[in-house]
Design goal:
Layout: H1 2-19, H2 22-42, H3 57-74, H4 78-87, H5 89-94, H6 100-128, H7 136-165, H8 168-184, H9 197-203, H10 207-220, H11 224-255
């Protein structure tokens, strides 16, 4: 119960900090809309390629952009932790009885809620443009769950990296190195049927592709077997990243 209470208080602190930055809130809302509109128009002709497997690119794109938003939004979660380190906030928190796990869980929960809100905006815009969740409400929830699990995982990894590196430049460079290849080694914006063989093989081990596959299967109302496997893999990946982030506090305290 203490862990849950600490996590809640830290989560509320981050929500309040976010709401004090109206520009950030506006950008977080507008950016997903722009992605849907721009990507939807730029790549809409690819559905005419034989073997693509979809007649509407907006329908195909909606789950993928939801996952892209989660990925890019959570990957730099560690920057907020670095700001707390620079201001001495983290050191003061570590001097209290607060759970070390709650310090990470609060940030992971904040990242997960943020990406779910953005995913909801994306699906709403896609619905206006003609996309329809053939999986119904469970399919929409599958998109939210996939986005939140991936967001939680990358938020944990980003915070672990921030605690170990303690330099913004290194965190940004490392996350850019991970995020962009993960994006293009997935079926986020291109059908798996049209991928080169080696990319299709590599995507099987890519957590981003697990999230895209689970979200798209749920959104399209496909058989749940592959979706459930991908969600289980995502949950395990998120737990590992959260554990690494919590363990990184020991490394941080030794470097103080």
């Amino acid at each position: 119960m203490e862990f849950l209470r600490d996590t809640w208080h830290l989560f509320v602190r981050l929500i309040r900090a976010t709401m004090r930055m109206p520009v950030f809130v506006i950008i977080s809302i507008v950016q997903p809309v722009l992605w849907v509109l721009l990507f939807g128009q730029l790549f809409k002709s690819v559905t005419t390629i034989p073997g693509f497997g979809a007649s509407s690119y907006v329908q195909f794109l909606a789950p993928g952009i939801s996952i892209m938003t989660a990925l890019f939004g959570a990957a730099y979660s560690g920057m907020g932790l670095l700001a707390d380190i620079d201001r001495g906030v983290l050191d003061r928190l570590l001097a209290t009885p607060v759970s070390r796990g709650a310090l990470i869980a609060g940030r992971i929960l904040h990242a997960a809620v943020q990406v779910v809100v953005q995913a909801g905006i994306i699906l709403l815009v896609a619905f206006i443009l003609g996309a329809r969740p053939h999986g119904g409400l469970p399919g929409v929830l599958a998109v939210f769950l996939s986005a939140s699990l991936l967001g939680a995982a990358f938020a944990g990894f980003s915070n672990a990296l921030a605690l170990i590196a303690r330099r913004q430049e290194l965190v940004i460079a490392a996350m850019n190195f991970v995020v962009l290849p993960s994006t293009f080694l997935s079926s986020m914006i291109m059908s798996r049927n049209l991928m080169p063989g080696w990319i299709r093989g590599a995507s099987r081990f890519n957590p981003v592709n697990w999230a895209v596959t689970a979200a798209r299967d749920g959104f399209e109302g496909r058989a749940p077997s592959e979706m459930m496997l991908c969600l289980a893999l995502l949950a395990g990946f998120a737990l590992i990243c959260g554990f690494l982030a919590t363990r990184s506090f020991g490394r941080y305290r030794k470097a103080m």
